[in-house]
Q: What sequence folds into this?
């Protein structure tokens, strides 16, 4: 098949895997392994104030990026080139499509918040507020003990809408334009920002590069997100006209320079407010109910699917898949050069 057809199949298959298979178990998830490596590096750094600490932060990013993008490319190269050459070209092509789709899916999550938020809604509907507060602690960093039902529902909506950019738009955009290395590039920066992106003595220098790089990578995707939220809101017959004006007016309410765009757009489209006590209040409506959390899931999922099947699919078919194939060719040459030392070849 032509490469652009393979690209379309990869995007569609990855979306189907996300919807019907879900996430890789945490113990086997590459982000978990990446986090373990970063933890090991973090424990060995003693001097946190020197200029070289910032260099160590950059080198740590480079290490995990090269390692995990290299592993991904090694898998897809084996499928497309090695299996294609030694078994059958069609078998190799099919294996390449499946492997690329699976690895790509690991970089994004459209439907995963359902498994966290629906049980929280069920607890709230049954009056089990303390159980709901314990469950919501798994998806937010704030202390949820003693939180009331409205703020628990708000926490769900905040997390769902904030992750529209970090968990969907950004990784699929960079996959679309750069192939698998692009998705890994963003995921590494985003994870390191979550782990090291704190303005304190321990992480201010070590996390400087990944935190700033994450902001740069999310700049365009966060600012385009309100338009896709509006489009999804129009399809779902919500208040879609409010999305873009609200995002432009209120996006600065969050500490992050990027997260406020999607959050304010979603809150306006749903006609609700979101509140993190002592930090921000966005939106002009009441705090959300469990019905609003379910509406939020539907809105964000719809906006995600629209984006993936338009921007990501077109970009990958035109550009990203070609760049990935080129990177696989380089990977194949490196493998053969290494094996050539021992007189072997693939």
A:
């Amino acid at each position: 098949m032509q490469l652009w057809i393979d690209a379309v199949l990869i995007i569609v298959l990855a979306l189907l895997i996300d919807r019907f298979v879900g996430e890789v178990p945490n113990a086997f998830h590459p982000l978990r392994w990446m986090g373990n490596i970063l933890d090991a590096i973090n424990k060995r750094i003693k001097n946190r104030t020197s200029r070289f600490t910032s260099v160590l932060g950059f080198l740590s990013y480079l290490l995990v990026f090269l390692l995990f993008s290299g592993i991904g490319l090694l898998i897809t190269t084996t499928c497309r080139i090695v299996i294609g050459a030694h078994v059958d070209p069609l078998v190799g092509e099919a294996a390449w499509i499946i492997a690329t789709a699976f690895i790509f899916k690991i970089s994004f999550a459209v439907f995963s918040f359902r498994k966290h938020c629906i049980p929280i809604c069920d607890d709230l509907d049954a009056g089990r507020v303390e159980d709901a507060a314990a469950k919501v602690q798994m998806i937010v960093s704030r202390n949820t003990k003693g939180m009331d039902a409205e703020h628990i529902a708000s926490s769900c909506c905040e997390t769902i809408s904030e992750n529209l950019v970090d968990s969907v738009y950004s990784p699929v955009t960079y996959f679309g334009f750069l192939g698998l290395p692009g998705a890994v590039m963003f995921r590494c920066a985003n994870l390191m920002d979550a782990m090291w992106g704190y303005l304190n003595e321990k992480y201010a220098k070590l996390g400087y590069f990944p935190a700033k790089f994450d902001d740069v990578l999310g700049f365009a995707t966060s600012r385009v997100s309100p338009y896709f939220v509006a489009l999804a809101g129009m399809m779902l017959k919500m208040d879609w006209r409010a999305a873009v004006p609200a995002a432009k007016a209120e996006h600065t309410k969050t500490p992050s320079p990027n997260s406020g765009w999607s959050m304010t757009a979603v809150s306006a489209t749903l006609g609700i407010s979101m509140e993190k006590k002592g930090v921000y209040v966005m939106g002009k409506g009441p705090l959300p109910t469990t019905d609003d959390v379910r509406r939020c899931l539907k809105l964000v999922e719809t906006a995600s699917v629209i984006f993936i099947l338009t921007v990501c699919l077109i970009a990958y078919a035109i550009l990203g898949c070609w760049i990935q194939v080129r990177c696989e060719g380089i990977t194949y040459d490196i493998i053969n050069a290494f094996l050539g030392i021992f007189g072997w070849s693939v």
Residues 272 and 285 are 4 Å apart (CA to CA). DSSP finds twelve helices and two strands in the chain.
